[in-house]
Amino acid sequence: MFATRSTEDEWMDDANAGEPEFALALEQLGTINRLTFAFRPVISWLDRLVKQTGATQLSILDVGCGGGQMLTAIDAWARKRGIAVTLAGLDHSPWAARYAEAHNVPARMITADLFALDPNERFDVILCNLFTHHLRDPQMVAFFRWCEARAGRGWLVSDLHRHWLPWGVVWVGFRIMRFSPMIIHDATVSIARSFTRAELEQLLAEAGVAAEVRWVFPFRWNVSVVRDA
Ligand SMILES: C[S@@+](CC[C@H](N)C(=O)[O-])C[C@H]1O[C@@H](n2cnc3c(N)ncnc32)[C@H](O)[C@@H]1O
Predict the structure, then answer these.
(1) Residue pLDDT, tens place only, 109-135
(2) Would you tell me how many other CB atoms lie within 10 Å of the CB of residue 171?
(3) How many distinct helices (H) and strands (E) make up the chain?
(4) What count of other Cβ atoms lies within 10 Å of the Cβ of residue 41?
(5) For 62-79, how does the pLDDT look when each residue is reduced to its tens digit (9 = 90+)?
(6) 0.85 exceeded by the pTM?
(7) Mean per-residue pLDDT over the chain, rounded
(8) Which of 56, 59, 73, 91 could form a disulfide with 96 if both were Cys (CB 3.0 to 4.6 A apart)?
(9) Where does the pLDDT of residue 229 fall: very low under 50, low under 70, confident under 90, or very high at 90 and above?
(10) Of 115, 106, 130, 104, which Cα lies nearest the Cα of 39?
């Protein structure tokens, strides 16, 4: 079952998903991100990027940003560190932008498929959390090249490690915690659609991109590039 990436569709990717269930899923994803310490590896990577590049101002794009909770966490980090940030979030669901705007996420929201983004849009940093497992392998290769072409200082992909242990914990735990049907369905599908290290390294090789692949707690991969100043 876990030998290869699943191709089962997530309910979140159904264009007919209604706003109430999508918004509830975004709300609960925020809770899951907090419970699984998802902001921490992204923030410590940003710390590393700032240290390595000496940057004091950054334009940052969050791809597949959902409800924008990561952007809010980045805004708080930037204020604390005295970094001037210009934040943008990209998501193809119109419900994501509406959710983020209703929750005062301090970012410009772009509603578009990532591959349809204006080619002139470039950022110092591109990052994403729990997003890339939505892409099939050829799109992943294209996405790595897309990040390379559009991110001046660096990029980070933070996503799940496909493994039976988190799959089992999530299957049981999310039912006990009474998450919504969309989250209960998509959470295990997300893990099954995710990656092993060997797959990420193979996809990077196909893209012709040299990036660091790092395992982070709990059962995540951080794939990243930082360009020295
Ligand atoms: C699992 S959610 C993660 C949301 C957010 N990053 C978080 O951590 O809570 C994945 C998001 O990616 C968006 N998405 C999926 N495919 C996309 C694409 N091709 N272009 C833009 N957004 C996409 C979905 O609409 C969804 O909001």
Answers:
(1) 999 999 999 999 999 999 999 999 999
(2) 13
(3) 8, 7
(4) 19
(5) 999 999 999 999 999 999
(6) yes
(7) 96
(8) 91
(9) low
(10) 130
Residue 226 one-letter amino acid: V
Task: Give me ligand 1 centre to Cα 66, in Å.
Answer: 5
For residue 83, count CB atoms less than 10 angstroms from its CB and return exposed for 0-12, middle for 13-18, buried for 19 or more. middle
Letter for the amino acid at 170? V
Tokens of 67: 């409800």
Smallest CA-to-CA distance from 140 within 88, 215, 187, 205 is with 205
Of 90, 109, 131, the one to substitute when testing ligand 1's pocket (max ligand atoms within 8 A of C-beta) is 131
Q: What is the mean pLDDT of residues 174-185?
A: 95
Which pair of tokens denotes residue 69? 């909770």
In whole angstroms, give the CA distance from residue 28 to residue 37.
Answer: 14
Which ligand 1 atom sits nearest the alpha carbon of residue 93? 25
